Amino acid sequence: MPGWRFSACILMEFSLVWIASGCDGRAGELFPEYxxxxxxxxAADDLPIQALQNPEHPDFVEAGSAVTxxxxxxxxxMIEGTSASTTPDSFWVSEPEGGEWSxxxxxxxxxxxxxxxxxLVNLRxxxxxxxxxxxxxxxxxxxxxxxxxxxxxSVVTTDQIATxxxxxxxxxxxxxxxxxxxxxxxxxxxxxxxxxxxxxEGLELTVGPKFDSNYYFVKTVGLAFAHLDGVLEYSYSAxxxxxxxxxxxxxxxxxTACLPDPCPTEPVTVAQIQNRxxxxxxxxxxxVEVRGLVVTSPVFPTSNQPSFYAQDPAGGPWxxxxxxxxxxxxxxxxxxxxxxxxxxxxxxxYDNSQIEAASVVVxxxxxxxxxxxxxxxxINDTGPQGEAYESxxxxxxxxxxxxxxxxxxxxxxxxxxxxxxxxxTLIVGWQMKYPFVCPATGGTPCPTDQRALxxxxxxxxxxxxxxxxxxxxxxxxxxxxxxxxxx
Length: 487
Fold this sequence. Notes:
CATH class of the largest domain: Mainly Beta
Strand content: 35-45%
Largest sheet: 5 strands, mixed, barrel
Mean pLDDT: 90
Shape: elongated
């Protein structure tokens, strides 16, 4: 594949002219005489899609050729076609009758008005092999009519279209159907899952998430499908079936395999995120909006990105959440007491509930919630309330240090327990790098480290966290550690 790259500018409605200089890796060269007019007329080189895909077609064209496809049907909604795409710019088309060699992927990064499934279009562009995947880089897309019937799915087997199958190439980009399959692997990574024939014989077909915003179901090994439809995509050296909507996922009972979307459309509370027993509990990976939270910690780095804790003003169990603000710039003065609204994705990261924030808006200031005063034995690794108070401000009282360093390597953690219950230990962490602690370096003690075995505290306050398989109390500043005055 040549190494040229392109950017685009609009000549007329739906028309693009490509010039050397873009950044997405599509290659080739197109000239202005290769454009269709606003009615979809003009240019020669009319070819069926089969001539682009089937090397044995009598009119087969090589990559780099300019072609015109007339009266082809859009078979999918638009997607972001490259990692550099910021808006939907790609879709699949098919000859109306469907069948082998009948589909192709279209990359149209400057298409202003977009297309929808069922649009009958004329299009003009250049044939490319993009990482061994045939596509048309469109210079013109003209919609002739909408609501045209979609091509019927061609019934195939997993042995034909799974990676390594006998007929992958002829069904590339075609709307296909596999029948009587079961879900064999719920997580192949990056949203993919696998299906096999219900008989257990045959290749495992990878099913991709390209359009999973259009449908929802619970991926469970053994889940049966009467049929799965979709377009067959090739990417990252593998063939994937890409279902387009609930109409493509059908259960044996002659009903859709989809379930109602569990993600909320209205703002939620932290308790709905943290408490699995809440009647309106939010599913992981849902987009959420949470309003009126109070920031309870300083901003500190997590993987070199800003993060913080926030809590419902009333406090109590299930009221706190970790917020990972990757890529966001938080305003000056942001910190404990900031009253915020936020949006983002709720995720379970190594069993730690958190929101990967898309936006954080400061609405004003508010008092911090009072820390919940709890015994170590209630919130340590075996305590019954650790989960309920995850990411909540907590205080333990009357404790002393039972280990000045926790673990073989000094990461700043130490261990405390109530004087009267030395077995009820709780790890005190150093997530927020307060100066009371200075970890050893290379086995050499830090001269400013104040941790000491037997050290007594009237109280230690912090955010209760779950990390590396342990609950930890995370003080925010030295003020959270109140040493006993002694006799």
